[in-house]
Amino acid sequence: MATRRSFLKHLPRSTCEYRFEGIERMKQQIEHEIRAFDENAERSQYIIFSQVPFNTIFSWPDSESFSKLFDSYSEELGLLVVKMISAPHEVASQEFHWLLGDKLQEMRIRRCIISIGRTTASGRTRAKQPDSSYRPRKLPLNRTDNWPSVTIETGVSESRLDSDCQWWLHESAGEVIISRAQGTTRVDGAPLIITFENLFLRAKSGDEGDIIFTTEDLQGLAEKVWDIQHFEGIEDF
Q: Residue 219 to residues 90, 205, 206, 212, 216: CA-CA distances in angstroms?
């Protein structure tokens, strides 16, 4: 059974919370928080809405800019978490997507994978959208299409990212491997490896192999994130 504390515990303490008062009012509150977030990047990138009816999720505004803000929802608790999307966040997510595509194209297997983007996945405790997600076009006979094989979560709160990783792994019963793309000031843990078997859900053959992101790959991604933030100078690599 989910509790309010467990559902929200990895959000920054500065995260603002609003009681749900209708879609239009929520849109106004989100717009206010986005303006504040754009002016002060130290603010939490999340917003909490309480007492949110389940049918509200299906009445979410049609605008793509609002639909992309959905992070997670607990019907049991009536809690909705919205994640404000910044330019650095979008650059990190998109650059990783293209980088993965390039790696797959090198092995001539790009057409064998499907990008299912921010498709919502529903677990026992909440519904959640990743920043991006993927699965093979051809699934094993014992595998449903309810879960992607790889998800990407991008963000500035490491504790929240860790929480998101644990959710994907737990709720999918081990069917998801997590990769993280962050615009940090260092590249740690390189190379980042997505094993072929975990992405394609089958054994590799011929020239097929693991997808390897080198320090140079990740540094190039980070440099573009810094560029969008107008950072001067890159050191300590």
A: 16, 30, 30, 14, 5
What count of Cα atoms within 13 Å lies in the side-chain half-sphere of residue 96? Answer: 26
DSSP 8-state code for residue 186: S
The DSSP code for 112 is G
Q: What is the pLDDT of residues 41-74, one digit of tens each?
A: 778 889 999 999 988 776 666 555 566 788 888 8
**To 10 degrees, the CA torsion angle through 37, 227, 92, 211?**
-160
Read out DSSP for 146-163? SS-SEEEE--S-HHHHHH
Q: Identify any residues that bridge with 193 across adjacent strands, giving them in sequence order.
A: 212
* Nearest residue to 17 via CA among 42, 41, 51: 51
The answer to whether residues 82 and 71 touch, using CB atoms and an 8 Å cutoff, is yes
Is residue 233 over pLDDT 50?
A: no
Q: How far is it, in rounded angstroms, from Cα 41 to Cα 17? A: 18
* Cα angle 99-101-104, degrees, rounded to a multiple of 5: 115
